[in-house]
Design brief:
The complex is a heterotrimer of chains A (333), B (336) and C (310). Chain A is 32% helix and 23% strand. Chain A has 333 residues and is α/β, with parallel strands linked by helices. In chain A, a hairpin with a 2-residue loop joins strand 11 and strand 12. In chain A, helix 5 crosses helix 7 and helix 7 packs parallel to helix 8. Chain C has 310 residues and is an all-alpha fold. Helix content of chain C is 67%, strand content 0%. In chain C, helix 5 packs parallel to helix 8 and helix 6 packs across helix 8. In chain C, 45% of the residues are buried. Classes of the chains: A alpha/beta (333), B mainly alpha (336), C mainly alpha (310). Chains in contact: A-B, A-C, B-C. Chains B and C meet through helix 1, helix 6, helix 7, helix 9 and helix 11 of B and helix 7, helix 10, helix 11 and helix 12 of C.
């Protein structure tokens, strides 16, 4: 249902062009959950924003195709794109505390997404437009209450009129999910939806997302920096590094038999609960500066423990190593 | 909840008003010579008896705390004393000139908001475009320009050179309209007198524009910077991701938030508006309290000066109260 | 870097500027100002004005007392006047150029002195209130709040009405309220700085409170005070001119831009130059100060917000 081909996003800064997304290929089948994993700054969020064509200035999508149900989103007009946003493709943000508009009641913000996509159509009968509007509002209100109930917000009739700051972080994220669900989207983009929350709340939110996936058949792209969470939650995993996918495949393949040195490093750095006091593993070095990254060679070269001289020069693309499993590394050439 | 907070805020103004009144009273005591001396200064042929009589009339024969007490109780009754030069109660003079001042101030406030806020919004949305740059350059010049000079320049262009608009007064002196509200623009409309309405509007335009210029400039700058701040917030991106049309994203989601800091500044700007009012009324011969007080200063009519200054300060306090109350409706998080 | 559409990559705006000792890097600062063309232009024009004020007797074509009733209302050269009076003359035959040059003295002096005194008082009281809190803080803060309930110009007019015209009266009337701005800035900053490690360390070392305020805290907030002072100076010059315009400034025999503009008021229809030219001199100066101040703010203290003209 979604296929991204050779996506490139560039940020023009004073220090030169930053390639935030650099030739990304990705695909997702209907009803599946795809985990997009990587360190911060690897271009995960930019990939999601690109799908909605909301890359912030001075960023720009310079190349590629984003096929959603066979149609290229990058060729859509702004108004067609607006129709798609929130209706066919919805997005959840990382920090619920800053995602809701602080000056409007939560319920009204959910109702707004029903309104902008005309979910409740105005009735044709009725003599006065005023009455129709009132009626429509009432129906929307009822639908909002239903949605709030569905995502686990108790006392929705009362909470409808609460302001975001009167909600806890978990409750805010539920409200945001209610907004995302309001138009029954086909694809849900979740940008680290649990990072800002307590561990117990995290589990609840993940359960809620899974339920949505199972009940509505909504496909989900789940962005996280936490490979452990992704392993538990997703059907497929794509690992991102420096704006590229370095490895992707079914979850058991990627987690069970990681191929790319970067994936291996990420897996090793997950702390395990054991009695033994082990030193935590960390991948050496830092995420490379995308502005000064050499266009040639493997971007992970400098930090890679298995690097060889050729890595500096090689032109790589994703290599299919087994059915549905791809890796971008010289070793599998 | 909100009502309780508002009430608390209202009660808070009482000690401030009291402090203003006492300060003004004390300042009066500093004035060189008491009112009676000033009054008598011009006429040397007065008997000691007359002076005593006058002193009694102004309560100057009583101890100072009694005078303060009388001053404050009179103030509560709305009695601001008597003008020395005009011989009528100060409150009556204020009441006569106030409609002119309010009409001018409201017109300027409206112009300032109507010019400043949209410019701020457009500048922020089109950040760094030539439009943004030129509007910000103009508003920067606007805050660096004294209003009396701007007023004179406008008179020079629109009255002296182009002969388009009148430069002095509120209305063509040949026209008289019955007083209802005291606002000439409204009274002339109520009276159905189209000619008077046009004349009063033409007289109002230049002073209102002059008075509104610094306000508009400041509002445009504040609105622009708070819009820029708001626009980088997640909830703006989220609103777009919801499929909200761009126009609504800006005008509803962003503007509503950007107005919060702007209103704070508006509160402070009321003070500038009141001060500017005094200047602008003098430039354009506008018969309001601003001209009243400046004339009173040169006439050494201290009760009148004190009354008007106090009136200005009270108005400022009330305006800030109003802004704070407005604030609670704009920002759900606010604690008064 | 340029910030467009309000979206800045996180790492740019999270960079907080480094606190450094006052005055030690003046050269560094000048280097940064040089890169901002508007701030640099502002600074150069300010310098020209200051030189003009200092050397007024040498550069003015006439003496300040000179007036020639026979040469009344002469237009400036571009309006058909002669080079004898390049900017024309006023209604009593004084040379406008001379008057404008001398007028810069009062504007600059008043602007500078009021800001200096206000900054001094405000910093002193703000440091005390912020450092010691308690009753001192409450009393000064209440008083400051109270002063803020008067519109600035109204307050100044009221004070001048009582005191009468005069240079020091003018300074007093303008300073009476304007220290509050500095007080609020310094108090806030001191409250913030007080809890930082370096202050706690100094306290642990047994240094006296006064020494901590003067030698530890103030150098760290000096830049903010300096920026505020620059930005307030333009406003003070406008206020001075406003009072002079109303005839409530210095005694009428001292030339000021405000009183020049006022004297040309009644001749706006037949001798526009008397009012407009001193105003242009004033606007250019205030504009330059504000440009310089904004540039300084961007360099030294991007967090500082000075909005509104009250």
């Amino acid at each position: 249902m979604l296929e991204i081909r050779n996506l490139k996003v560039i940020f023009e800064t004073d220090r030169g062009a930053v390639r935030a997304v650099n030739g990304l290929d990705l695909s997702l089948e209907k009803g599946k959950i795809l985990g997009l994993v990587g360190e911060s700054g690897s271009g995960k969020s930019m990939t999601l924003l690109s799908i909605l064509r909301l890359v912030p200035y001075p960023g720009k999508i310079v190349e590629g195709e984003i096929l959603f149900e066979g149609e290229d989103l990058l060729k859509k007009s702004p108004s067609e794109m607006r129709e798609i946003r929130g209706k066919d493709i919805a997005m959840i943000f990382q920090d619920p505390m800053t995602t809701l508009n602080p000056v409007f009641p939560v319920g009204e913000q959910i109702r707004e997404s029903l309104r902008v996509h005309n979910i409740i159509k105005p009735e044709r009968e009725g003599i006065l437009g005023f009455l129709r509007e009132k009626d429509r509002r009432k129906k929307e209100y009822e639908k909002v209450v239903e949605l709030m109930e569905k995502v686990g917000i108790s006392y929705p009739e009362k909470r409808y009129f609460s302001y975001p700051h009167q909600f806890s972080g978990g409750m805010q994220q539920r409200a945001i999910i209610a907004i995302a669900l309001s138009c029954n989207p086909k694809l849900l983009l979740a940008d680290e939806p649990t990072t800002a929350l307590d561990v117990t709340i995290q589990a609840q939110i993940l359960d809620l997302l899974r339920k949505i996936n199972e009940v509505n058949g909504t496909s989900i792209i789940f962005v996280t920096h936490d490979l452990a969470v992704a392993a538990e939650f997703c059907d497929e995993i794509a690992v991102m590094y420096a704006g590229q996918i370095v490895e992707k495949g079914p979850v058991d393949k990627v987690i069970g038999e990681p191929k790319h040195p970067y994936t291996k490093g990420l897996l090793k750095s997950i702390p395990k609960i054991t009695r033994k006091k082990e030193k935590l593993y960390a991948i050496p070095g830092n995420v490379p500066d995308l502005a000064s990254l050499s266009p040639k060679g493997c971007p992970f070269y400098e930090r890679c423990e298995e690097a060889v001289e050729e890595c500096k020069e090689v032109e790589l693309s994703l290599i299919e190593v087994s059915d549905g499993e791809f890796v971008r590394c010289i070793k599998y050439l | 909840m909100r009502e309780a907070k508002v009430l608390k805020r209202v009660l808070y103004t009482i000690p401030i008003m009291l402090a203003i009144a006492i300060t003004v009273f004390i300042f009066m005591r500093f004035t060189p010579g008491d009112p009676v001396d000033i009054m008598m200064g011009k006429e040397s042929m007065v008997s000691q008896q007359d002076i005593e009589l006058l002193k009694r009339e102004f309560n100057l024969d009583k101890p100072i705390y009694t005078q303060l007490y009388i001053f404050l109780t009179n103030l509560l009754k709305g009695d601001l004393g008597k003008s020395i030069t005009k011989g009528v109660p100060v409150i009556q003079l204020i009441r006569e000139t106030l409609p002119a001042t309010i009409e001018l101030a409201l017109a300027a406030l409206m112009l300032g908001l109507l010019i400043g806020i949209p410019i701020g919004i457009i500048s922020a949305v089109k950040q760094n475009s030539w439009l943004d740059r030129s509007m910000m350059a103009i508003s920067f010049t606007g805050i660096s320009m004294p209003s009396f000079w701007l007023g004179l320049i406008l008179i020079l262009i629109f009255s002296a050179k182009l002969n388009l608009l009148p430069s002095q007064g509120r209305i063509n002196f040949l026209i008289s309209i019955p007083k209802v509200t005291g606002f000439y623009t409204i009274d002339s409309l109520l009276n159905g007198d189209w000619e008077a309405f046009v004349s009063s509007l033409r007289h109002l335009f230049l002073p209102a524009l002059t008075l509104s210029a610094p306000l508009a400039a400041v509002l445009a700058r504040v609105m622009r910077s708070s819009m820029l701040e708001v626009l980088r917030n997640d909830y703006v991106v989220f609103a777009r991701a919801k499929g909200v049309p761009e126009k609504l994203v800006i005008l509803k989601h962003a503007v509503r938030n950007a107005l919060i800091p702007t209103v704070t500044v508006l509160g402070m700007e009321v003070g500038a508006l009141l001060g500017g009012n005094m200047i602008v009324e003098n430039v354009f011969g506008w018969p309001g309290i601003g001209r009243l007080v400046v004339n009173a200063i040169f006439d050494r009519d201290y009760p009148l000066v004190q009354g008007v200054v106090m009136f200005y300060a009270f108005t400022f306090v009330m305006a800030n109260l109003l802004v704070d109350v407005l604030y609670t409706y704009l920002d759900p998080k606010i604690e008064l | 870097m340029t910030i467009k559409n309000g979206i800045v990559p996180a790492k740019y705006y999270e960079v907080s500027y480094k606190k450094s000792n006052a005055m030690t890097n003046l050269l560094n600062l000048l280097g940064k100002i040089k890169k901002r063309s508007t701030a640099l232009l502002g600074m150069l024009i300010i310098i020209v004005y200051i030189l003009m004020a200092i050397f007024a007797p040498f550069i003015s074509p006439y003496s300040v007392k000179y007036s020639d009733l026979a040469a009344r209302l002469k237009p400036p050269v571009w309006s058909g006047g002669t080079w004898a009076h390049p900017l024309g003359t006023d209604q009593v035959g004084r040379d406008l150029l001379t008057q404008i040059i001398y007028g810069s003295r009062i504007s600059i002096l008043v602007g500078f002195l009021t800001v200096l005194i206000s900054a001094f008082i405000g910093t002193f009281l703000g440091a005390i209130a912020g450092y010691y809190r308690g009753t001192v803080d409450t009393v000064i803060s209440r008083f400051a709040d109270f002063l803020l309930s008067f519109p600035f110009l109204i307050f100044a007019v009221g004070v001048m009405a009582v005191l009468g015209p005069g240079f020091w009266n003018l300074i007093l009337a303008l300073t009476f309220k304007s220290w509050v701005e500095f007080f609020r800035l310094v108090r806030g900053e001191v409250l913030e700085e007080k809890n930082k490690e370096y202050v706690e360390a100094a306290q642990a070392l047994g240094r006296s409170n006064g020494a901590i305020i003067v030698s530890e805290i103030l150098p760290n907030i000096f830049q903010s005070i300096f920026v505020l002072a620059t930005l307030r100076m333009g406003y003070m010059i406008i206020m001075e001119a406003s009072l002079s315009y109303l005839g409530l400034g210095v005694p009428p025999d001292i030339p000021t831009w405000g009183s020049l503009i006022n004297s040309g008021r009644n001749h706006i229809f037949d001798a526009y130059w008397i009012s407009t030219l001193p105003g242009i001199a004033l606007v250019i100066l205030v504009l330059s100060i504000n440009l310089f101040g904004e540039g300084l703010r961007d360099i030294l203290d991007p967090r500082l917000k000075v909005e509104g003209s009250e």
